[in-house]
Amino acid sequence: MLVSLNWLNDYINVRDYEPDELAEIITKTGIEVESVEPVAEKATGVVVGHVVSCEQHPNADKLSLCQIDVGEGVLQIVCGAPNIAEGQKVAVAAPGAVLPGNFKIKKTKLRGEESNGMVCSLQELGVDEKDVPKEYQDGIYVFPEDVQAGDDAISLLNLDDIIIELGLTPNRADCLSMAGVAYEVAAALGREYELIAEKVEEGSEKAESLVSVEVEDPEANPYYGAFILKDVTVGPSPLWIQNRLTAAGIRPINNVVDITNYVLLEYGQPLHAFDFDRFGSDKVVTRRARDGEKITTLDDQERVLTRDHLVITNGDKAHAIAGVMGGAESEVQEDTNTILLEAAYFNPANVRQSAKDHGLRSEASTRFEKGVDPGRVERAGLRASELLREYAGATVLQGVVSYDQLDRSEKTIDVNTTKINNRLGTEITREEIASILERLQFPYEQSDEDFTISIPTRRGDVERFEDVLEEVARIYGYDNLPYTLPSGASQAGGLSLEQQLKRRVKAYFEGAGLDETITYSLTSEKQSTMLVSKEVAQQAAAPVKLAMPMSEDHSHLRLSVVPELLQSLAYNVARKQHNIAYYELGTVFISEESEVTKQPHEMLRASGALTGEWLSHPWQQEKKSVDFFVVKGIVEGLSDLLDIPMTFEKAKIEGMHPGRTANIMADGKIIGFIGQVHPKLQKEWGLKETYVFDLNAEKLFELYEKEEAFEAIPRFPSVSRDIALVVDEDVSAGDIKETILEAGSPLVKQVLVFDLYQGEHLSAGKKSLAYNLLYLDPERTLKDEEVESAHENILQSVKERHAAELRG
Amino acid sequence: MKERLQELKEEALRKVDAADGIQQLKDVRVEYLGKKGPITEVLRGMGKLSKEERPVIGQLANEVREDIAQAIEVKQTGLEEAALEEQLEAESLDVTLPGRPVQVGGPHLLTSIVEEIEDLFIGMGFEIKEGPEVESDYYNFEALNLPKGHPARDMQDSFYVTEELLMRTHTSPVQARTMGLKNGSEPVKMICPGKVYRRDTDDATHSHQFTQIEGLLVDKDVRMSDLKGVLNAFAKQMFGAERDIRLRPSFFPFTEPSVEMDISCKVCGGAGCSVCKGTGWIEILGAGMVHPNVLEMAGYDPKEYSGFAFGMGPERIAMLKYGVDDIRNFYINDQRFLKQYHKA
Ligand SMILES: [Zn+2]
């Protein structure tokens, strides 16, 4: 809401405050002031000039040579505007004047003729192009007749006004009107204000003799008032109305439209003027539209209606979508003589629906949607009638023809001083509360500590004790609330085990050299099903999709964090940052239904993606690119950290390198995958060799067991033995390790691969794997024979299971 | 014989002194202290001496041996140290060459901020609660006093999945869920951080996904001044002890009264500058006393229980605290951006 301080000052004196100071007070007591701006950049020395004569410039076709009376004398001015003419009252910047942009006006010669100043357009005076009336857009501004040469043009045009913009929250619809703002500012400043009563001079003819009103759906339209105004002369509205509309960001059109808009701004009540002759009947019927019914609205759009939309009809044909927009057919035009003026209360939800369905949000619909003041509907009609009589020459017919089921009763709310103080933590006296209620102009009855308050209809948002509490608190001032701390029983607070684990896992990854990322949960359809771990793919029927996405890039919920990480990698590589190691703890969304009806399972994943160099120490000729085993090492480290054994099984996953991918298993189930991204996919992302991992963090946290008892450090020495085995190429190192652990149980505690060899000295298709084995008995020192016997046993088993030969 | 022993000793000590290598020293040892050495020879000739002289000469010979042995030892230690010194000198490094790098990663700036806020409220006895991101219309709106058709639903146009399910537009549904589990009889003291979603086109100041942290305290006799006290403690710890706070009236459907909290501008100290748009204040969060309808729907009797709630955006806090000027930076994951804030 844009509030003109000149206008506001007509209602309540605000001149003794600096605009910024006033804004601060308004902000602190109730409504956020978003900006304080002058209507136009400062201009001085501009006066009204009367064009005494206007002739063609002797040396230039497009220029005029004018003699202009500026009150203190007549000036010769050369003017280039096409619309200048003798007899006009125009805005003249005489020599010495300063226009916006610090443009100083001087005497000059134009094509040989002396020019003592400039005739100004509104744009040159700093008016925003969009607020300039159409007829003056391409030329100078022409004043109405009733101004005097020499008058200050800046103040006549209200260009010295200051506009404060209010950021209104949805509950404060009362401040969508100048009257409402005045009540609010009066309360904030502790001053007096009351919306003055309307004074309409009515003619003798009765409105009801010309029109009747019928309402079919009282819930959607509890009040409809029809005023009839005859003998209207459509023309420009007076300058002060135009100025006030302009200040509020509404372009002046003609007196009838301007007056309805003016009252909308003043009272917050939207009105609509129909050309009564074109309306085509003596009966107003408001009803729900028929499905498929059509109307051409003021913007010349044909609109198809449904039962959800309320329409104003002449008993047959729709002439307006209630509260949203009038019909083109009965629009007020230059020849309009009789007006049917509508002042109505439409149900907010209904207007909201219509405005939404037709994409028409207007000053009117916004106010109806938020609920207008029931006490002001009819008054607004009276106010407009009064103005139309004065400024459009209308004869106001007697009485308003109305349908009226509107509830105008004032709510009463009981409050108690102690209760208010207990809730606020204050010690406000009952006298102070009484004084606050008076400032708010909320009538009340008081008995000691207790107040029974009547809430004016303009404040529909105040419905219960807590609302009054807020009114009292804001006027009392939040600055005056003390600082206290909650007195209730204290609890320990803290992180749950899962939250602690999350932080530990993050710290682990970061210690391991990965940077944390946060990516979008909403992704493209294609990306939503890419690089999904098997156990997730098995559970998810389909990715969850939005009903109405804003873009294809964010239309589906992800089933894997990995593609989002790759996208981040690609972003960096495209910017010449080639060495990236990222991880994310992020949610994926698993729905077991292909048509979602219930909340998907949100599963926390721990995922990572790495590309480029892992280690680079050039002067020592050390350099290592990320490879499978770098990434596997990171995962194994996590396995150690959480003490959850993990195994790796070669696997094929769409989008992954078929020979360099494994499922990760824990507790006998797949919990994720690891490997190289498929080279084809790498290429699509513009990536070089890239490795990823993806783990079900939720499952890991479930498997995690907090160490309850401490295991003693072994007191007896362990025995270390090496063993080198020759096996077929396709025998996996992990399988051999399993066999060794099994056959060496319980003495073998640790098995480490320390060499892998293929080539010379080995027959084709063979490889040699060397392991270091650690034997230990925590209870005693091992004897050589025991180790020997276990070692033999192991050799026997690997020979049987894997055809392994001891390497000679 | 005495003279001979003295002579030998002096001779040997001279040679020890002159030795400039371990080998030479060894030779001296063999020469004088070996089985065939001159001192042994002297001792062998002791048979010719009188009974009285024998022990005297024997003792003297032993003393001479010991003196020589000790001199050799001292000299040897000296030579060894010198040798070691020389060797170490030869091993000297250019300590200004760069070390072998260790990969160091770090947290995302938003995580740092969220955890800082979490820890701050944990210190005040709050718990941390989490909840689903795909939320029911009931918990996201209705339980928070936003019935269907409520105009305030416009304030946060949302991504629906079905008519009843949507991407949560705030983390408040976690509050509603947590309260709902308490049978209307236990106090609640929690904060809930998490991702939220709104129908916004991504630009410098809007993001369809962002982060929120909301807090809730419900108990008997919770006062608005308690909210002010808690927020003040939070603001001073988060932004600095010299910052002031102020509450301004505002509106949220789930609180009444509702306020917005500003902190005094760090740049100008309250005088007004471009950062605070001339007001001296910077908006940080929204808060208020829990709306009685919300308490009622969660099973609390609003006559007996009251509470306060607050909500803030870590992105906004990061933008204010670290001068991040484009919200998209938080989600693009440019390495240069991420690394810059690892110490945040
Ligand atoms: Zn500032």
UniProtKB/TrEMBL annotation, chain A:
The keyword Metal-binding applies. It is an enzyme of class 6 (ligase). GO terms for molecular function: phenylalanine-tRNA ligase activity. CDD domains: PheRS_beta_core, tRNA_bind_bactPheRS. Its cofactor is Mg(2+). It is found in: Cytoplasm. Residues 40-154 form the TRNA-binding domain. Residues 408-483 form the B5 domain. Residues 714-807 form the FDX-ACB domain. It catalyses: tRNA(Phe) + L-phenylalanine + ATP = L-phenylalanyl-tRNA(Phe) + AMP + diphosphate + H(+). PROSITE patterns: B5, FDX_ACB, TRBD. Keywords: Aminoacyl-tRNA synthetase, ATP-binding, Cytoplasm, Ligase, Magnesium, Metal-binding, Nucleotide-binding, Protein biosynthesis, RNA-binding, tRNA-binding. Mg(2+) binds at D461, D467, E470, E471. The keyword Transferase does not apply. It holds the Pfam family tRNA_bind. Its EC number is 6.1.1.20. Signal peptide: none annotated. Belongs to the phenylalanyl-tRNA synthetase beta subunit family. Type 1 subfamily. Tetramer of two alpha and two beta subunits. NCBIfam families: pheT_bact, YtpR. This is Phenylalanine--tRNA ligase beta subunit. It comes from Halobacillus campisalis.
Automatic annotation (TrEMBL), chain B:
Binds 2 magnesium ions per tetramer. Residues 109-320 form the Aminoacyl-transfer RNA synthetases class-II family profile domain. CDD domains: PheRS_alpha_core. Its EC number is 6.1.1.20. It comes from the Bacteria. It catalyses: tRNA(Phe) + L-phenylalanine + ATP = L-phenylalanyl-tRNA(Phe) + AMP + diphosphate + H(+). Its main location: cytoplasm. Belongs to the class-II aminoacyl-tRNA synthetase family. Phe-tRNA synthetase alpha subunit type 1 subfamily. This is Phenylalanine--tRNA ligase alpha subunit. It comes from Halobacillus campisalis.
